[in-house]
Amino acid sequence: MATSLMCKSLGAACLGLSMACASPVALALADVIETPARATDLAPENLLTDVDRAGDRMVAIGERGHIIFSDDQGQSWTQAEVPVSVTLTSLDFASETHGWAVGHSGVVLHSDDAGESWEVQITGIEAAELAIESQEEAIAEMEEKVEAATGDEKADLEWALDDLYFALENMQADLDIGPVNPFLDVLFLSEQNGFVIGAYGMLFHTSDGGETWSDWSPKLDNSQNFHLNAITEITGGALAIVGEAGQIHVSVDGGQSWERREGPYPGSLFGVIGTGRINEILAFGLRGTLMLSTDLGRSWSMITSGTTATLTDGFSEDDRIVLVGTNGAVLVSGNGGETFRSYIRGDRLGVMSAMPASGMDLLLVGEGGAELTDAKGKNLK
After folding, report:
1. Does the structure show a pLDDT above 60 at 14?
2. How far is 160 from 239, CA to CA, in rounded Å?
3. Spatial separation of the C-alpha atoms in residues 103 and 91, rounded to whole Å
4. 161, 142 in Cβ contact below 8 A?
């Protein structure tokens, strides 16, 4: 279970084996994106990676294409109809009925009935083709610049052109293998306007509810194609992305353009949320790293998390903020993220995501499936 758990957060860390045996893997990948998730009563107890609300309904996703939903605040669960059996990594509902889930093999799923049934919008094949098309356009533009340049400028541009050619070759090699690259997070600002991000710097945008997608990765300052792990909208309307190697990207125009922010931590960041206050961002990741910015990421303060567990996800509600992570870590703040108290659950199973349940109770999802707890993360049962 630990391997599956970390695959969500570590992007393509589990893809090396796939690269090493292309033909059999390509067939296996095709199988899982064409095979519906198997119905099982154990879906609520297996690995779950994310949870969200569709109106009053709770919806959770996980491994083997499992999607479950609850209409009684997590007391009981029903399994949804899902056309794929890949591990799903992230979920977002833009309204009470319309939601999107993403996962391994570059899968994007859509539901228009509050999570009861799902359809495939794109897979890693279509995503790779879009990325290749975008790269070819960038090469054409760079070739024109090289032709018009002289002297030292021309030499620099030729180096940049070589990098673009090299990246294109890698993309084409990935496409020959199959849909190997996972999407790791999804954000929809409305039923029409959404983003998906993932391994090797993938960033795609739709303005028509996922009917068509555009490759927006060239909008980021991410020439090394580091993995992008999490995307969120913060109070005030700005968007934030965090990822591998301490990456932080912020947009103040709805994602049309992005600025790279420098943070104090050079390691991987796996989660980002707002505090509920305008322009405030919480970013978190490896070894309990937790950072707060009150100015859209221009400056950061390190917050003592009280844990060395890797932090994976969280939510804010009024002044309450809850973060969760590996080793059963649950962190709670009652002052908008200025300080946190940590609790390690007795089973030590990794927690991937959390959301408010009845009253101050929590619904936690992770290696142990779905579990209702009190406000600190202690089991109710």
Report:
1. no
2. 29
3. 9
4. yes
DSSP 37: P
Q: Give dist(CA 360, CA 348) in Å, integer.
A: 22
Radius of gyration of the chain (CA): 20
List pLDDT tens digits, range 67-112: 999 999 999 999 999 999 999 999 999 999 999 999 999 999 999 9
DSSP string, 256-305: SS-EEE--S--S-EEEEEE-SSTT-EEEEEGGG-EEEESSTTSS-EE---
- Whether 22 has a pLDDT exceeding 60, the answer reads no
pLDDT averaged over every residue in the chain: 91
Alpha carbon distances (Å) from 263 to 73, 236, 239, 241? 38, 21, 16, 12
Tokens of 365: 């999802």
- Order across the sheet with 259-261: list the strands: 228-233, 239-243, 248-251, 259-261
- Rounded to 5°, angle at Cα 5 from 3 and 216: 110
Quick one: average pLDDT of 36-63? 97
Query: What six digits make up the tokens of 236?
Result: 């005030």
Taking the C-alpha atoms of residue 335 and residue 247, their distance in angstroms, rounded to an integer, is 26
Instruction: Please name which of 84, 90, 88, 91 lies closest in space to residue 114, comparing C-alpha atoms.
Output: 91
What sign does the CA torsion over 343, 348, 350, 356 have? negative
Q: What pTM value is reported for the model? A: 0.89
Helix axes of 151-177 and 22-34: crossing angle, nearest 10 degrees = 70
- Among 111, 112, 100, CA closest to 205: 100
Angle at 179 between CA 17 and CA 93, to 5 degrees: 115
How far apart are the C-alpha atoms of 181 and 49, rounded to whole Å? 17
Residue 327 near residue 5 (C-beta atoms within 8 A): no
d(CA 56, CA 75): 13
Selection from 329, 333, 360 nearest residue 346 by Cα: 329
- With tokens 């990935």, the residue in question is 174
- Whether 304 and 322 have beta carbons less than 8 Å apart is answered as no
Query: Minimal CA–CA distance to 353: which of 59, 93, 30?
Result: 59
